[in-house]
């Protein structure tokens, strides 16, 4: 069985966007290829996305750049109060980064995913946290089926229009709304789950396409039926789950536009002459229960000097997430906040 995964594309986009204008020409071209935007546009979008999420009562986002080197006027103008001084002592710097991480992920992530060393000249960070309840609460269930065994889970009844099959009929999807605190604006946040006959990776691909769903059909291998008093609603059962993962962004550096930024021959002008990204990691976690969803991500890039190494009874439809599945948390203005697959641990 493949391992469960969780990451935040939005959090990575924030961090890359923060430094994109300060990359070399080759790095800026790579950013354009990876994100389909010019460096300046990606930077402006990152700042705006953080502001949009900051206006939500259930989302929290933060950006910061720490440096031990003099910063050119262009960077000061662009980054403003996002700039911070990195303590001279590595131990003090690590404590500062860890404290910032904990504060801006609501305590869900205690430590920064990068370690400060003697060669560290700057650190770029983004943090994203979500703590929200379902629009309508679920019902705890001590025994739901998942991957052939009985596990603790929960059941929710959702509108039939919030469930469906992908156009090719191979993926079953349910979409769940999150509740906004009284008096707050509706952020349009959706948590989506998908089971696919081919496995959770295919389910995640179907989720990210965001295509129109066809109605669920009785008799489909992914669709169950239950005795229910409202055929207009679908019963969804899910396992309760919580896990955390750390992703090394440099392992897929070209995917995020970081291959040139992590090459000592290219450097990152504006963050230090002859410097490059020696570490780029994101720590992310998710917790899903009958009450709601908690998720957090912290993406960090460590810049180092190039001289160092780097009622009536009726038959109603049901979706029982009883095999590995995919999930995604989306925002209408920002895009995919969190995504991943759940394989049972």
Give a quick rundown of the structure:
The chain is an alpha+beta fold and 345 residues long.
Please provide a written account of the structure.
It is built from seven helices and 17 strands. The chain has helices at residues 9-19, 25-35, 39-54, 73-79, 90-104, 200-209, 253-256; strands at 5-7, 59-67, 83-85, 120-133, 139-146, 149-159, 163-165, 171-177, 190-196, 224-228, 233-239, 241-248, 275-288, 292-305, 314-320, 325-331, 335-342. It folds into two domains: 5-130 and 244-305, Antithrombin, Chain I, domain 2; 133-240 and 312-342, Alpha-1-antitrypsin, domain 1 (Roll). Mean pLDDT is 89; it is low at 308-312. The longest helix has 16 residues, at 39-54. With 345 residues, the protein is of the alpha+beta class.
Q: Name the helicity range.
A: 10-25%
Ends: how far apart? Answer: 10 Å
CATH class of the largest domain: Alpha Beta
CATH-defined superfamily of the largest domain: Antithrombin, subunit I, domain 2
**Poorly predicted regions:** 308-312
What CATH architecture of the largest domain would you give?
Answer: 2-Layer Sandwich
Give me the number of helical elements. 7
Please give the order of strands in the largest beta sheet.
1-17-16-9-8-7
H-E order: EHHHEHEHEEEEEEHEEEHEEEEE
Number of strands: 17
Shape descriptor reads elongated
Strand fraction equals 35-45%
Mean pLDDT: 89
* Biggest beta-sheet profile: 6 strands, antiparallel
How many domain units? Answer: 2
Please compute the radius of gyration using only Cα atoms.
22 Å
Structural class comes to: alpha+beta
Give the CATH topology of the largest domain: Antithrombin, Chain I, domain 2
